[in-house]
Amino acid sequence: MLRLRPYHANDARTILSWVTNEKAFYQWTAGVLGTYPLTEQQFHAVTQHMAFTAIDDEETIGFLTMRRPADSFDELRFGFVIVDASRRGQGYGKRMLQLALQYAKQIYGAKKVSLGVFENNTPAFYCYKAVGFQEVLQREPEVYPIWGETWNCLSMEILF
Predict the structure, then answer these.
(1) pLDDT value at position 128?
(2) How far apart are CA 138 and CA 122, in angstroms?
(3) Which of 70, 120, 124, 155 is the most exposed place for a label (fewest CB within 10 A)?
(4) Is the dihedral of CA 35, 37, 42, 48 positive or negative?
């Protein structure tokens, strides 16, 4: 049975093992945590947020964070969403997000959950759409300079 539990420092090695190339790393982190390859010590910065590990029968299969973009809990922002590469395409990402949305709404009383996803990360975009996130049109797209390129970050949200 899939469930979320608080992130433990000993989860880092497993989670980082899922990112096997630089492009995937930057699609996942936007370079916010550091440069590729990330060390376990650098990854522990996620504890500044509400960090959760998704487990299925005690096996680590996913990870995400929640944070408050403002002082209230009215909006929570998901970040660093990742599923074990060997488990992708099996519905784990959707189920993990559904659990996290339920948690955001029922435990924190959030009225909205938002996230960002790079345009070049279409599997993640469609996973977010499948659980109900809608793209938010922005006047100015959020951009990140990665590898000498400009990567556009799409904003998505779900309202409760």
Answers:
(1) 98
(2) 19
(3) 70
(4) positive
Give the residue ranges of the chain where pLDDT is below 50. none
In this prediction, residue 147 carries a pLDDT of: 86
**Rounded CA separation 23/30 (Å):** 10
Q: Which residue matches tokens 């010590």?
A: 41
CB-CB contact of 112 with 160 (8 Å) = yes
By C-alpha distance, which of 126, 114, 116, 127 is closest to 152?
A: 116
19: CB partners within 8 A, 6+ apart: 25, 28, 36, 37, 38, 82
> Which tokens is 107 given?
């435990």
Residue 15 CA to residue 30 CA, distance in Å, equals 16
Contacts with 126 (C-beta within 8 Å, 6 or more apart), sequence order = none
